[in-house]
Amino acid sequence: MKKKTQLIHGGIVGDEHTGAVSVPIYQVSTYKQDKPGHHRGYEYSRTGNPTRYALEELIKDIEEGSRGFAFGSGMAALTAVMMLFNKGDHILLTDDVYGGSFRLMTKVFNRFGIEATFIDTSNLTNIEKAIKSNTKALFIESPTNPLLKITNIAGAAKIAKSKGLLTLVDNTFSTPYWQNPLTLGADIVLHSATKYIGGHSDVVAGLVVVKDEKLGESIHFIQNSTGGVLGPHDSWLLMRGLKTLGIRMEEHEKNTHQIVEFLTHHKDISKVYYPGLKKHANHEVAKRQSRGFGGMVSFEVESAEKAKKVVQNVKYFTLAESLGAVESLISIPALMTHASIPAVRRKELGISDGLIRISVGLEDAEDLINDLNHSLNY
Ligand SMILES: *Cc1c(COP(=O)(O)O)cnc(C)c1O
Fold first, then answer.
1. Given 243, 264, 283, which residue is the final one in a domain?
2. How high is the pLDDT of residue 337?
3. Rounded CA gap, 174 and 296, in Å?
4. pLDDT, tens digit, 9 for 90 and up, residues 229-254
5. Which range marks the domain in which residue 256 is found?
6. Residues with a CB atom less than 6 Å from ligand 1
7. CATH number at residue 294
8. Side-chain-side CA neighbours of residue 121 (13 Å)
9. What is the bridge-based pairing of β-strands 90-94 and 115-119?
10. For residues 238, 244, 249 and 251, what is the CA-based torsion angle, rounded to 10 degrees?
11. GO molecular-function annotation terms (predicted)?
């Protein structure tokens, strides 16, 4: 089954009892037992809920894993995955991971004795060098935020496997429509489904898919024990979002290519970051491991002042954090998503004060380009 078909026919389709073509929203917490201890597959909705299960089956199919799990947010999903590890374990992470992931590792899990080191995984030799005797996992984000850095997932997973590490990939930016880390050798893939999977800026959710059954058992045990589950209505919203993920990503891609073409030729823009550009670092890797380059672009203008002017004068780009929805969004990482990172560290990472990030939406590309052009020349 091709991806667009899988998005619509994967998982559990419709309702057997009534013929309803959409999976019903089972807004329920508990289930009648036929005899004590004899239930019909569901006993309590933290453990399992039919609507959530339908979503979990769907994301499992799309990511080509053995089991899927839905959580109340991307961070709840990552929290559950990190609970696989023990006090004294060490985790390696991409250095410019999502800010919330950085915070979780350095301000929460550190208190439980789980140690984290952040390295530039876009260069594979850095991974090998950073592995210690207690390293248990490699956590990759590719492409990253906001510089769209690319890590060779298959190469990284190979190194991790040879040292007995699990490979975890945050696939939020690429989406399961363009990239499937489990087929590249990763063990666990995570999503902030709040972004492209939901796609309409109306739900906060997280998803996890594992490659093997045993890991699936462990994650289910943690999901049920710690309880960060996604509710039935939000599960249904994600299934609704997933049905159009394919056409949405194709359109995001088309719009983005036109916008990147415009940005690279604008005199006031010194640099454009987009994995689809031939000169983007690791462009060849991105081309090999993903079927598309996505709808996120960053570009540099001369100063913070100019950047502020641009974001305040656009009409169709909403000034907001987050990404991946039908409406175009614009932000200044140094002042917004990455403001909590010290200025020195931002400089090291290459995040200048004049860097602008856009999440290209599904508006007409010509309108978006005119809008950017007008605000750049303002
Ligand atoms: C938003 C985001 C997260 C966190 O997800 P929430 O749903 O906001 O909890 C994690 N990783 C990436 C790459 C994100 O963009």
1. 243
2. 87
3. 9
4. 999 999 999 999 999 999 999 999 99
5. 246-376
6. 73-75, 98, 100-101, 141, 145, 170, 172-173, 192, 194-195, 204, 206
7. 3.90.1150.10
8. 33
9. parallel
10. -140
11. cystathionine gamma-lyase activity; cystathionine gamma-synthase activity; pyridoxal phosphate binding
